Amino acid sequence: MDNHKVLLAVLAHPDDESFGMGGTLAYYARQGVSVYLICATRGEVGDVDPRFLEGFHSIAERRESELRCAAGILGLAGVIFLDYRDSGMPGSPDNSHPQALAAAPLEQVAAKIASHIRQLQPQVVLTFDPIGGYKHPDHIAIQRATLQAFQLAGDQTYIDDLPPYRPQKLYYHVIPKGFLKMAVRLLRIFGRDPHHFGRNNDIDLQALVEEGDFPIHAEIDIRSVRAEKDAAGACHASQLDGGPPRRGPLVWIMRWGDRKEQYMQAIPEEKPVRRHRDLFSDICEP
Ligand SMILES: [Zn+2]
What we know:
The chain is α/β, with parallel strands linked by helices. It is 36% helix and 15% strand. Helix 3 packs antiparallel against helix 9 and helix 7 packs antiparallel against helix 10. The longest helix is centred in the middle third of the chain and has 17 residues, at 137-153.
C-alpha cells in the first residue's frame, strides 16, 4: 500500500468533478490509482427545477445524490464533504451566509483539507486555478485553501491528530485560452453574448479570455474515458436543464475543447520544460 498511487481533487460543488476534470479522474481511477474527491459544499444554492426535487428533502440532498452517481461512474475511491454552504455567484446574498464557503476563514478550511491530506496521503493534489476557472467565489476560496493546506499538511510544526505528510505535486485545472477564444468567437457568430454565458448567464467568457492566461504544464488525453466523463456529467441532471445538450454551438465548442484536460503545475515551482502527459511523472516512490 505504501507506494500505491493516490490522487486527491479538492473542489467546491457537486458537478465540478465531472464537467471540469472528470476525464482525468476517470483516467487515473481506471489505471488503479485511488482517486479521492473533497467537495466543499453540496451546491445548495444551485437553481433546480422542482421536478428534480421529487423524493428529496432539499437541493443539497438531490445534488449529493447526483455527485454520488458521478463518483460511481468515474470510479472514485471516496467522496468527502466539508459541509460548507454554496456561496452562490458574486454579489448574491448567499455570499455572506454564516456557513458560506467564501465567508469561512481560510485557515479553518485549509486545516480541514490538511487533515484529509495527512490521512489519504496523495502524491498529487488537484484544484482550480487562482481565478477559480470562471471566478466563482467558492472556486477561488477552495483554491486558496487547498494551496495553504498543501503546505500545512507537510509542516512539522503544525500539529493535529496525524503525522505530517507532504504531497509531491499541486496542479491547477486550467481552461485552455485557445478554447475560450474559440468559444467567444462561436458565440458571437451564433448571436450569443459572450459576457453572459452559461446556464445562469453569469459567466463572462470575454473577461476570462483577458485574465485567465495560465501556463500549461501537463495535459491528459481523455479520449479513452470520453464515455465515463459524459455519463458522469449526465448524473447532474438538475444542472443540465432537461438533459445534456446534444447539438448546437455549445456542443461543438465543448467537443472541440474537451479532448484534453490541462493543468498548471503550482508546486513544485520548478516547472517541466515540456508538457507532461502524466500527472504522476517525476513522482518519487517512497
Ligand atoms: Zn462549481
